């Protein structure tokens, strides 16, 4: 990938030597200093656990300005995409860099819809899981297993193979996700419907039963679609970085996405919406809010206000703003204004956003605070929340994976460390140890 070298270079000096590090200028956002030659020139490594100050790649897909609350995909603001584009259109944009023409959209949609079906033998995988298995465990395992079924897209040096695998992953992850849910409640799997939109089909696979005539509510399908658009990509977050890292070793795309799903599972990442809802349940009623907030603010306690705060957004998360509105629409459509948990969430949001502690630290509701509430209102069980996030983020993961494979400067990710263990010492045979 091409980098624009900035005129500025940075001089790095030690007591005995120095080097000039070039800096690169992005289209937007801060410049980055190229430290790749530092180990060779100075015998030094940069120390950055958590990669807080490190750009690990260059990318044309997503831009975030956390201070200003800006999120752009391929240059388009998330607010416009969430309002005017559906998930399939957004997937096309992220994968190929441009919004599709009407014709391109129809061709892409038709092809994507044919990939929804799973090889019939994949059904057998589900029976190997306990009924009470977390659907993320089922998703992680079954997505990885897809590589054992779809051999024809595995030559990752071929652009057509990469594209085929990317499309399969986006389409089939949704079917696996819905079937994981059906399996957990002991209901028969509902086969995907090629005529429905991505979100309608997903709701249909979740809630239809043989013999009932499940009719998809368009307001609710739109709400799901919006959640999917808002979660489709988010630059170099923990799970995307994982996908790129695994991909850098040349692993097959199904293994890479499965690793991304595992990274997303954690409560500090994609598990936050499930954790936010559990937190609301533990608070119980409006009366419990002050005591809970005191605990969340106490530095000696491990309690955090789940669904608040973000590593990058130190202002309002722009996705949260859109979902706040969608959340209210869904609650009104379903007549859930009096649902005690939703009422509690709205009160908690009000109190916390006016509290000095959260204001001072730039802690605002993040996308997970509202997505959990919407999904609950739609009747989607809590253990499926992160699964839905994974269905959406698969689009970002495969786009970033493709970009990485196509980047001639990409190398296997192999960081170094600051060793703080014991110095070299002599081995003592076991019978001589005291
Ligand atoms: N509740 C209470 N205090 C918080 C919270 C919170 N949710 N988040 C951060 N803080 C406080 C920290 O204690 C710290 O306070 P201090 O300066 O007095 O020590 C300060 O704010 C800065 O916190 P950091 O941990 O340095 O922030 P970081 O950027 O590392 O963490 C994170 C971001 C992990 C998202 C954090 O805000 C958090 O745990 N939030 C709750 C979990 C959550 O909602 N995660 C979803 C993220 S969005 C996503 O994945 C789509």
TrEMBL record:
Q: Where is the active site?
A: 310, 368
Extract the CDD domains matched here. EcCS_like
| Listed GO biological process terms | tricarboxylic acid cycle
Region entry Disordered, spans:
1-23
Q: Which GO terms describe its cellular component?
A: cytoplasm
Pathway of this protein? Answer: Carbohydrate metabolism; tricarboxylic acid cycle; isocitrate from oxaloacetate: step 1/2
Q: Which domain of life is it from?
A: Bacteria
Q: What is this protein called?
A: Citrate synthase
- In its UniProt entry, the species of origin is given as Swingsia samuiensis
């Amino acid at each position: 990938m091409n980098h624009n070298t900035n005129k500025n270079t940075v001089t790095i000096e030690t007591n005995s030597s120095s080097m000039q590090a070039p800096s690169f200028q992005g289209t937007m956002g801060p410049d980055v200093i190229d430290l790749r030659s530092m180990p060779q020139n100075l015998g030094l490594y940069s120390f950055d656990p958590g990669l807080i100050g490190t750009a690990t790649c260059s990318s044309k897909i997503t831009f975030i300005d956390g201070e200003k609350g800006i999120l752009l995909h391929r240059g388009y603001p998330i607010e416009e995409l969430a309002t005017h584009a559906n998930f399939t259109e957004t997937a096309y944009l992220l994968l190929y860099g441009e919004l599709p023409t009407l014709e391109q959209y129809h061709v892409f949609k038709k092809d994507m819809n044919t990939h929804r079906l799973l090889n019939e033998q994949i059904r057998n995988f589900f029976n190997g899981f306990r009924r009470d298995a977390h659907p993320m465990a089922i998703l992680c395992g079954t997505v990885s297993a897809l590589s054992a079924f779809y051999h024809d897209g595995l030559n990752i040096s071929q652009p057509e193979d990469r594209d085929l695998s990317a499309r399969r992953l986006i389409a089939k992850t949704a079917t696996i996700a819905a079937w994981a849910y059906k399996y957990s409640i002991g209901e028969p799997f509902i086969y995907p419907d090629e005529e429905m939109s991505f979100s309608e089909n997903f709701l249909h696979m979740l809630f239809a039963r043989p013999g009932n005539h499940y009719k998809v509510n368009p307001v609710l399908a739109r709400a799901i679609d919006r959640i999917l658009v808002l979660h489709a990509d988010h630059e170099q977050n923990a799970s995307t970085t994982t996908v790129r890292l695994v991909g850098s070793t040349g692993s097959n795309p199904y293994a890479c996405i499965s690793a991304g799903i595992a990274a997303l599972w954690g409560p500090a990442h994609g598990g936050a919406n499930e954790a936010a809802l559990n937190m609301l349940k533990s608070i119980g009623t409006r009366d419990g809010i002050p005591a809970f907030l005191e605990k969340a603010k106490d530095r000696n306690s491990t309690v955090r206000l789940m669904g608040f705060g973000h590593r990058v957004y130190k202002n309002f998360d722009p996705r949260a703003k859109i979902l706040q509105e969608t959340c209210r629409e869904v609650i009104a459509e379903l007549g859930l204004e009096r649902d005690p948990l939703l009422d509690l969430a709205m009160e908690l949001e009000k109190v916390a956003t006016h509290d000095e502690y959260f204001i001072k630290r730039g802690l605002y509701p993040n996308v997970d605070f509202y997505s959990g509430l919407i999904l609950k209102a739609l009747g989607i069980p809590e253990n499926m929340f992160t699964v839905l996030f994974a269905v959406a983020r698969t689009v970002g993961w495969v786009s970033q994976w493709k970009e990485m494979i196509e980047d001639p400067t990409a190398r296997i990710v192999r960081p170094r460390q600051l060793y703080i263990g014991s110095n070299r010492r002599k081995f003592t045979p076991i019978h001589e140890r005291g």
